Amino acid sequence: MSAPWHGFLDGLEGRAREERVELLEWLADRGFTDAELHRAHAEGLLAFLPAERVVMGGPPTLTAAQLADRAGVPLELLQAVRASQGLAIADPDRVDFAEAETRAVELTARFAELGVSEAQMVAIGRVLGRGLAQAAQVMRRTVLELTLEPGLRERELAERFEATVEVVLPHVGPLLESMVRMHLRDMVRGETLDLRAREEGAIPGAREVAVAFADLVGFTRLGQEVPPQEVGRVAERLEVLGAAVATGPVRLVKTIGDAVMLVSDEPAALVVAGLALVDLVAAEGEEFPQVRVGIAQGSATSVGGDWFGAPVNLASRMTSLARTGSVLATQEAHDAAADDPRLAWSFAGERRVKGVRGGVKTFRARRAPDPERA
């Protein structure tokens, strides 16, 4: 494409227009097609086109249909796996994929040969896609922070961003593989199958677990009083603190806006983690919202990395009953953890909880007063 770059310079004047022309001419000289330029322009990502090509492993030369054919998988399976990962359904006839991406799709065929069903691949893809989408956003921001300097022209930004991605990208794959291996190791160590499961050859649908929700008090009001980036910082900090207490048998399941969800097969360990989280949040200072924790015990099932069942719903509702800076548990969770010497309890009354027939007996947890017992 040649000047005057019709449609690419609308609304730009002076230096901004000059920089955009410089960037477009540089991209065209490097072989980016009209279609690539128009797509990137529509998405506001012209400066990131060179880095995108680095990530793809080369220029796009294949359609989705061609990619599926080369990798030996049905197009429907390719699209289903992409959709489960949160990726856009590709136009089968649009050139959108690089040759290097064939290998990744071939792995889908290999998993199918090993007996992994489409439903299982979709379930794995859904969980990985959710986490990796967030990881990609953080990595992109990190690369930008490494790249940006005051006064950079658009072409300079594109060059520097591409160069940084080229340096960082080779380390991402090994890092992710190492992290997955470590998580799988912990999962294997913690996985148990009873005699019935082994005889039936099926994974149990549900098991007894303790579930905790910790939410920030006044978070909604905070969102009306401070800039969005500050609200995001607070939510991100809560996730960091939640991860800090999720050790041993306690696992951080997810964050939901102003709350974190923790699960454990050992109720006492979960209560101790809840108390530790209260202390960590309090240590953030008076300007940081305080936290309250609700814990329930019961039968729940894990699907796609998340948990479902009565104790999940009840623990979530228990947070609204808990005092600020406290840990409130149901009787079932209290009874399961009552003998732990690290904990002391007080009856907090029988409360009505939406969706639960009758009252729910609640107990407030605190650390045992005797330091030696703690």
UniProtKB/TrEMBL annotation:
Task: State the source organism's domain of life.
Answer: Bacteria
Provide an example Pfam family for this protein.
Guanylate_cyc
GO BP, one example?
intracellular signal transduction
Which residue windows are transmembrane per the record? Answer: none
Alphabetized Gene3D superfamilies for the sequence: Nucleotide cyclase
- The coiled-coil segments of this chain are none
Q: Which GO terms describe its molecular function?
A: adenylate cyclase activity
Q: What positions does the domain Guanylate cyclase occupy?
A: 210-319
Report the family membership.
Belongs to the adenylyl cyclase class-3 family.
What protein does this entry describe?
Adenylate/guanylate cyclase domain-containing protein
Organism source for this protein? Paraconexibacter algicola
